[in-house]
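Contributing new complexes? Match this layout with zinc ion.
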Amino acid sequence: MQFAETIVLEKIRRIQIYHNTKRYRQDQMDQILAETGGSFAIGGPIYLSSYQACCHLRADGVTHCAPDYTTYGMAWSADAQDYGMEKLPSGKSNYIECVHLIVDGKGVDPHYNADMGGRRARQAIGAKEGRFAYIATEAAYTPEQLRDVLLSSGWDAAVMLDGGGSVCFRDSTGAGFACDPGRVMPFYIVVHRADVSESDTGSSGKHVVLDAGHDAGNLANRSPDGSYYEHEFALDMARRIRAHLERCGIAVTETRPDGAAVSLAQRCAIANGIAGLDLFVSLHSNAAGGSGWSSARGWSAYIYGAGGKREQAARAILARVRETGTAVRSTPIVQDPSLYVLKHTAAPAVLIEHAFHTNADDVANLKDAAWRASVAAAESRGIADHLGVAWVPETSQETPQETPGDPELEAAVDILTAAGIIDSPDRWKALEYTDTSVRLLIIKMAKALGT
Ligand SMILES: [Zn+2]
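Output block (do not edit by hand):
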């Protein structure tokens, strides 16, 4: 089992280093949450057999350990809004050190005692793009492997906490696990979310789960030339869609906020643990014809069966995706009761296959940041349409700017669109394209001339 998430600091009220003077065991973590009012708790740093901290540690202004060296750790003040990595000891009222793995976005050679090495369950806290980040996983990693997983997930800072039997997680819904249920540890980290009711549903009262397909351990789902991996794409799309939905006041939970593996059952458990969840959206790219290139291409959405909110959601998303001009399959909504996440989620569920990574034209799109931005915005808009939530434009990009227009360019784009060479005229007219899309366009134009 694994729990991992990144949380914007504005949605955190307090990050508490809980001193376990009552000697709660791991299987009593719900009592810690009840006592503190925290939202979830994970295990803490390594400690001595005397239950003393043995690395830099300060909790609510009380210094528990002050060794005679400086090193990196996470530090924050009472409201946690300045949470980040610092050289310790620092002047802040909370800080924690254990084994730092990532500093300033770069992996470091971790220093640890031999009894902390080897492959074992792991937990860590850190930061990613200014967010609080944590992971507690039963998957066995060496410290170096954990570092690489977190790096590939985009963590900018990471401190590995105690591993093996000290790894545990519990949240206020009762979800969690304990690697050694009877173990008593001197410190836990308890995170208090800001206004849980609001962050659970967003200001719109709607809640969506985004399920980024696959994980960093799956390198099989890729383009035949190895230039594209589905797990990376899915994660990137989840982040893009999340930003749009949250801007519209829709609460978002990701089943896989990071690169690490999450089972299909766990993805469904995350969704089924959210009462009144409005929609589950799984993000993938398609494949056809074995491991080679194939002619099949286009966007499609899968649902368990016809009718209901799932079909309404799929149709609403499809309608917005069509507006982008991207290629859509001739049967764009497919009923497939065999897909696990469609079958085992209680909420209406849609699985999106974004184009084929086995098609050379599609894969150029899949790799193109402008295409991703366009399709993610369209899908988000379709989700908002379906949920009846007003679309909030991006202030920086969607506010009409004083663009004089370029009639010559627009006419040229219209000609190329009519000739089937350009799929997304709006993006070309808006000068939203990358080197990759220009390359593809040149190739398509040359092909068109040759026929
Ligand atoms: Zn997939």
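Reviewers usually confirm one structural detail per submission. For this one: Residues 2-194 form one domain.
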